[in-house]
Every structure is written in C-alpha cells, then in structure tokens.
C-alpha cells in the first residue's frame, strides 16, 4: 500500500502559502485539506472550498487534530477533512501557521514534509495583503499580532526539518516546487 503523505505549507501571512497550495492542485492534482475557521469570509472565498466557515459552537463540535488562535480568530484542522483529501490521493497539502506545522511534525512524523515560505523583505508581505484586498483594519490587526511576528521566522524543530522557500519570484518558486514534488514522488 502507498503510504499517505502530507505536504504542510507554512510561513508568514502573505508569503504565498495559499497560492502555492492552489498551484500544486492545478499542476499535480494534489488535493488540499480544507480547514475550519471562525474568521469572516473574504470577498472571493467559498465555504467548503477555501475554509469551512464556523461559529464558535460549530467549531467546538469538530474532531480537531489541532487548533490555534490567529489574529483573534480560531482555526483548526479536522480528522474528517484530512481523510476526505486522502481519499482522493496519497499525497495531500495543508496550509497552517507555524504552530500547526509543529504539531503536524510531532503527530505524523515522517509522513510530513514541511515547506516554510518566506520573502527577502517583510514589507512585500504588507503590499501583498493590500493587493489581496484585505481591509486596512484587518491588515493592521494582523501585523500587530504576536502570531504575525512569530511566523516571520522559522524556529525550533521546524528550523531543522522544513524546506525553506524564498517566494520573492513566483517563476523561481514554481521551479523549486517542481523539484520538491518530483523528489517526493520518487
Ligand atoms: N511570488 C509572489 N510574488 C508576488 N505576489 C505573490 C507571490 N506569491 C503570492 N503572491 C500574492 O500575494 C498575496 C498573498 O498570497 P497568499 O494569499 O497565497 O498568502 P498566504 O501566505 O496564504 O497568506 P495568509 O496566511 O494571510 O492567508 C496574493 O495576492 C498572491 O497572489
Ligand atoms: N494551525 C492552523 N493554522 C491554520 C489553519 N487554517 C489556517 N491556518 C493559518 O491561519 C493563518 C491565517 O489564515 P487566513 O486565511 O486568515 O489568512 C495562516 O497562517 C493560515 O495558514 C488550521 O487549521 N490550523
């Protein structure tokens, strides 16, 4: 039997985690785990596709592998969502903050490959959030959060185990991702 594998994509807000995850689905048919959140939907997001949008009480009923608070909202990944993705393919991807990535490394060990996305200049993150049309209030709240500062750097066990991708140039990032996926599929 092919062993189930999990590509955990982490890094700072605006570093390109969701962009990478969507590209991997398009290029390599790698299904994405849909996670749960209590934050409000952004203008282009769809319930059940980008996230399962939850209330505090509906989130409490999920069978969560891990959960975090990020910039004032709750996020969590469920056993059900992981199994739904694994039913489609043995290699799946999941976008989480660095605390979640750490939990996945501890829980799933060698089944996990962690990609840590970063940029050379942190100011690029702010312009990307503006370009994404996040509201000025949401951006300010996020930039002031402890989670934002924590996820700028890769630290602890993630430092030794994550593959670091400097996502300044999207063409270069695509080449790096292609190499990683080819290695994983060998
Ligand atoms: N290499 C790149 N160069 C320029 N813009 C990029 C690059 N990669 C992603 N972007 C853009 O930056 C914005 C943020 O990207 P994305 O939503 O993928 O980030 P994220 O890490 O998932 O953020 P968050 O954690 O806040 O959800 C998007 O508008 C995306 O199109
Ligand atoms: N640990 C977890 N982190 C998650 C999960 N779902 C998303 N995230 C991370 O939260 C922040 C904010 O996301 P945003 O969509 O509001 O910009 C980001 O770092 C996501 O990767 C989860 O289930 N667990």
Automatic annotation (TrEMBL):
GO terms for molecular function: GMP kinase activity. The keyword Zinc-finger does not apply. Its EC number is 2.7.4.8. One of its GO terms (cellular component) is cytosol. PROSITE patterns: GUANYLATE_KINASE_2 (PS50052). It comes from the Bacteria. It catalyses: GMP + ATP = GDP + ADP. SUPFAM superfamilies: P-loop containing nucleoside triphosphate hydrolases (SSF52540). Residues 4-182 form the Guanylate kinase-like domain. The keyword Coiled coil does not apply. InterPro entries: GK/Ca_channel_bsu (IPR008145), Guanylate_kin-like_dom (IPR008144), P-loop_NTPase (IPR027417). Keywords: Kinase, Transferase. Belongs to the guanylate kinase family. Essential for recycling GMP and indirectly, cGMP. This is Guanylate kinase. The gene is gmk1.
């Amino acid at each position: 039997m092919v062993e189930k594998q999990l590509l955990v994509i982490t890094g700072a807000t605006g570093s390109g985690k969701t962009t990478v995850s969507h590209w991997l689905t398009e290029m390599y048919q790698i299904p994405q785990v849909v996670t749960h959140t209590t934050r409000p939907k952004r203008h282009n997001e769809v319930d059940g596709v980008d996230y399962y949008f939850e209330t505090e009480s509906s989130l409490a009923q999920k069978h969560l592998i891990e959960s975090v608070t990020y910039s004032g909202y709750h996020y969590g990944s469920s056993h059900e969502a992981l199994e739904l993705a694994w039913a489609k393919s043995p290699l799946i991807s999941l976008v989480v903050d660095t605390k979640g990535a750490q939990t996945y490394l501890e829980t799933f060990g060698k089944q996990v490959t962690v990609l840590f996305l970063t940029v050379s200049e942190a100011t690029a993150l702010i312009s990307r959030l503006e370009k994404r049309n996040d509201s000025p209030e949401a951006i300010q709240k996020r930039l002031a959060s402890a989670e934002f500062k924590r996820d700028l750097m890769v630290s602890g066990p993630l430092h030794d185990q994550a593959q670091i991708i400097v996502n300044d140039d999207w063409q270069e990032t695509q080449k790096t991702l292609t190499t990683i996926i080819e290695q994983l599929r060998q």
